[in-house]
From TrEMBL:
This is Regulator of sirC expression, contains transglutaminase-like and TPR domains. Belongs to the UPF0162 family. It holds the Pfam family Transglut_core2. Residues 42-163 form the Protein SirB1 N-terminal domain.
Length: 310
């Protein structure tokens, strides 16, 4: 079990003023909590190298959009700036089942990413280039948002492809409900501290896999303090209560009636909180992904593999 003191570096990230949040710092804190052997100095050197590579592609008197285009070119188009080896979506792990693939060090080494690592690297480099880039979410997906002065609007940057996408495309493809849009839980440009909550989602996933309900609860609470409408954190918090029910009662007592009278109130409280947090997420527009949606997504991955000849 993780001691509360071990989460102090993450807590410090959430306590930063909005203007002081550093996405690279936040991501490296999260990755180091998951894997203490993470070589943060090496990752920072890589980030420095990529920042310089992007700067080499920025034209004189560039606008913010010019700088964004240079960033996308550097990462996604083969050329001397990336040794002819661009960053691409990892078609071998389309659902992000391997948590190692969500770490920044892995992505920088393999140059194969997912909808967690790819937008996070994009906003990290964007921040270093003074670009108005931030994170946003859709169901089971993370994207970037760019504040386009010319259009006077936020533009979606789909980091898994290095291009742009309309809100309507995400709504259709990921099953975003009208209620979710009305409540602002998806496709909204997040503040820096809210973005730290998104970055911390892999840590919640990690603690859930370890069945460390207390640590999972602590991280979910940090994310919810930053963004009370974070549906991912809500669902992880519900899962933390579920794990507590399982560990404290279900595994010990075959039937609920076997639970000692003195502990029944706690059992009822934890069970109630589990349901309450799922209900709260559902009321805001969160829905469980259907098997059909997942099957359609996997079919699109197979089509993309065929297109690439993989």
């Amino acid at each position: 079990m993780v001691a509360a003191a071990e989460l102090s570096p993450l807590r410090a990230q959430f306590e930063q003023p909005e203007s002081s949040v550093d996405y690279a710092d936040a991501k490296l804190v999260v990755d180091s909590l998951i894997d203490p052997s993470t070589d943060t100095a090496a990752v920072r050197r890589e980030l420095d190298t990529w920042t310089k590579a992007v700067q080499g592609n920025i034209p004189v008197e560039a606008t913010a959009r010019d700088r964004l285009d240079a960033l996308l070119k550097t990462l996604y188009q083969p050329g001397p700036w990336n040794q002819g080896w661009p960053f691409t979506y990892d078609l071998t792990d389309p659902l992000g089942k391997n948590p190692t693939n969500k770490r920044l060090a892995t992505y920088l080494t393999t140059r194969k990413g997912n909808c967690v690592s790819m937008p996070i690297l994009l906003v990290i480099l964007g921040q270093r280039l003074d670009l108005p880039l931030t994170l946003a979410t859709a169901p089971s997906h993370v994207l970037a948002k760019f504040a386009d002065d010319a259009q006077q609007a936020w533009v979606n940057v789909e980091a898994t492809a290095g291009g742009f996408k309309f809100d309507s495309s995400y709504e259709h493809e990921t099953g975003i409900t009208p209620t979710a849009i009305e409540n602002g839980i998806y496709l909204r440009p997040l503040t820096p501290r809210e973005s730290v909550g998104v970055i911390a989602s892999t840590l919640m996933e990690h603690y859930a896999a370890q069945r460390d309900s207390d640590a999972l609860m602590a991280v979910a609470d940090l994310a919810l303090d930053a963004n009370p409408k974070d549906p991912v954190a809500m669902v992880w918090k519900a899962n933390a209560y579920y794990l507590q029910v399982q560990d404290r009662y279900v595994r010990r007592y075959p039937k609920a009636s076997d639970i000692p009278l003195a502990q029944q109130a706690d059992y009822s409280r934890l069970s109630g909180e589990n349901l309450a947090w799922f209900t709260k997420a559902e009321q805001l527009g969160w829905v469980v992904k259907t098997p059909e949606q997942e099957a359609n997504y996997l079919q699109s991955i197979q089509r993309e593999k065929a297109r690439r000849g993989q």
